[in-house]
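Example (one chain per record):
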Amino acid sequence: MMAGAVRETPWVQRVRGVQGRGACGIDRPLKVSALANGGVAIGPSATINCPMTATVERWLGQAVQPAAMAWFGSPVVSIKQISAYACRSKNNEAGASLSEHAFGNALDVAGFMLADGRVVEVLSGWNGDDPNGRGFLRDVLVASCTYFKTVLGPGVKYHNDHFHFDLAHHNKAGTSRYCRPKLESVPPRPGSGGFVAGIGGGIDALISGFAPGELLDRPPASLIASEFADPFGVFNGDVEDPGYTDYTDH
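Predicted structure:
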């Protein structure tokens, strides 16, 4: 807040520190009921940490709203979130390491409402009949990898109904990212005459001058904790590497 990355408003409020079981908790949590100075509601209110709040705010203004205007000609006015702070282990497995949700360092988004009343949900829209809905969701997913360190969506086990975003450190520098599904391309924005390259190639071109860091080719070791705790269900056994075990049968 002193640096101006986060500003307290009637919709972004400091609340008492969360002390969960074990290591769960947030020292300085924020309760976020809306972003964009109240212009975009978050429902239900999300309890997250300061870095997530600042990142979600930037993601909304620089990635989501331009995509909404391009595909629908109408801005997003509400975001449906289905998980923010939650004291739980990865995959809800006893003995597994804690999820990023346990530190308020993650947010799961299931849908968007536009100013014209249209609702775009991840579950029904990703492979739905509306090409604009499909394009918008893919546009948002790809752009999200510029802002968050882990991005997971439909096609990844357990994520067919939402996007998962977090700021986990996958390397010592905290610069590596892991984004799935890895799209080969994104449908061209209406009137653009071209296409945005897939995550593996042209993601950086989405936000000019932004250097998000290395994109990991396989799940970080922190995402594959054990045979019984594939925290986000991201590993599908298609990476041939002696250091990784196929966990698809659990």
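Caption: Confidence is low (pLDDT under 50) at residues 193-210, 226-250.
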